[in-house]
Design brief:
Layout (H helix, E strand, L loop, with lengths): L2 H9 L3 E5 L2 E4 L6 H12 L2 E2 L1 H7 L10 E5 L13 E5 L7 E4 L2 E4 L1 H11 L2 H13 L5 H10 L6 H12 L2 H15 L6 E6 L2 E7 L4 E6 L7 H16 L3 E6 H6 L1 H18 L1
Parallel strand pairs: 4-5, 10-11
Antiparallel strand pairs: 1-2, 3-4, 6-7, 8-9, 9-10
Helix pairs in contact: 3-4, 4-5, 4-6, 4-7, 6-7
């Protein structure tokens, strides 16, 4: 099309300009996909971080800020009606793919980047869900992390991934022991059989039992069902059951210890 033809489309409002050389047809709504495509058409580069999470179907709502990475060689920024957060960087070819015709970080790197930007609850849930549904493997996440080790935010992603690839339940139990000693909580025994089930931590004199959980992706449905049945059995026997996942032990230790202390105080008062 000639420049005059383009100008005429804009003049009669058949095309709505959103950036230099980027227009939205008046026949189409400003959808989330349109917002993302406008940002990419304006700045170029690769969709990454939380915007990539949306494009991969990991995040339900497209963020208000479209996140992109553009090559270091690109100079200056273009005015765009769509709010965009861009960083200057490139990725190894293994970490870039195409989704719906748009260049985007591959799924493993997208998960790592999104996990680094989200709060810890959302980060763990996002990575755990992807692992549970076998969209990605721990080995793929580790390989992507190693290829992008120096990138911004990978330190936070490394913490979450390390817990996922470890026997996180055992690590969580070791962490819980360290917390018990740090907070001076005594009277507990580890790995005790109660009603035919081995319990992670037991306060025999107070009737308190604590189950320590790692990452959900490590467990199949049968294990989850067994855990629920065990909890019901313990309640029926008069025990006070508590359950703490690795995430809370790692990032919410004061809250965990407060819940445990309250349970101890409640059982001491009853006795």
């Amino acid at each position: 099309m000639s420049i005059d033809e383009v100008k005429n489309k804009v003049l009669v409002r058949l095309w709505i300009p959103h950036a230099r050389g980027v227009y939205l047809s008046a026949e189409h709504r400003m959808t989330e996909t349109a917002r993302l495509r406008i940002a990419v058409a304006t700045h170029g580069g690769v969709v990454d971080r939380t915007a990539a999470g949306w494009l991969h179907g990991l995040i339900r709502d497209l963020p208000d800020v479209i996140t992109l990475s553009v090559p270091q060689a690109v100079h200056g920024t273009a005015d765009c009606a769509v709010t965009t957060g861009s960083k200057r960087r490139t990725f190894p070819s293994e970490d870039v793919t195409v989704v719906a015709g748009t260049a985007v970080t591959a799924l493993p790197l997208t998960i790592l980047q999104a996990a680094a930007e989200l709060d810890i609850d959302a980060a763990v849930s996002l990575m755990d869900r992807a692992l549970q549904t076998r969209q990605v493997t721990v080995a793929e996440l580790r390989a992507s992390l190693n290829r992008n080790a120096g990138a911004h935010g990978m330190g936070a992603a490394r913490i979450v991934l390390t817990a996922a690839e470890d026997d996180s339940e055992s690590e969580a139990e070791r962490l819980f022991v360290r917390l018990l000693k740090r907070y001076g909580i005594t009277g507990w025994k580890q790995q005790v059989w109660v009603g035919g089930h081995r319990i992670d931590f037991v306060w025999p004199e107070l009737g308190i039992v604590v189950a320590i959980n790692g990452w959900a992706f490590h467990h199949e449905y049968d294990r989850w069902d067994t855990d629920l049945r065990t909890t019901n059995m313990l309640v029926g026997m008069g025990w006070y059951p508590l359950s703490f996942p690795w995430k809370r032990l790692k990032f919410e230790e004061e809250s965990v210890m407060r819940e445990l202390a309250n349970a101890i105080e409640t059982r001491q008062t009853i006795q």
